[in-house]
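Issue: ligand-bound run for zinc ion - logging full I/O for the record.

Environment: standard queue, default settings, no custom constraints.

Inputs:
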Amino acid sequence: MPDAPNFQIEAGEVIGATTYHSPNFNARPTDTEIQLIVIHNISLPPAQFGGGYIQQFFQNQLDWSLHPYFKSIEGMKVSAHLLILRSGEVLQFVNLNDRAWHAGRSQYLGKEECNDYSIGIELEGSDDCDFSEAQYQSLSAVVAVIQQAYPKIKSHIAGHSDIAPVRKTDPGPHFDWLYFRSLLHARNNHVQKIG
Ligand SMILES: [Zn+2]
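Outputs:
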């Protein structure tokens, strides 16, 4: 694995990620264990990458007048815990131990309100194009350490479209679950051997 990124988790902070602060979170309900990872995609404006608009959006600092599409999301207060840019850089907006507002109305294996017990990871991307190799590498690396830090997750990793199928389509048909799972599997084997 050339240039495979490495991360660590300390008190809900991802060491190796760039820290941002979103106000769009609250405390998880008492005695709620983290037991799910939700994968999303986002781009602002849709299918355009770079520009820093997602970061501004998650921090409630986006200027809605800059693009016609922004009008359609004006006033929305959302954030994932993590955002992985096309370069593979990982940005953290919300402490993993807090409840980020990423999933909306949702259900996983019959359990509602996925925000209560999940960690949300956004990939900068769209339903219409492939994700970058750097994103797969960073995603598998960060998910592997999250699974270690929160063992209840086990292999519970879902797409937003899996937990909100009528409303949501992301991460979309271009997200290669098999490839991601194979990278993750390799990571976990490695972690077990050295751990
Ligand atoms: Zn989503």
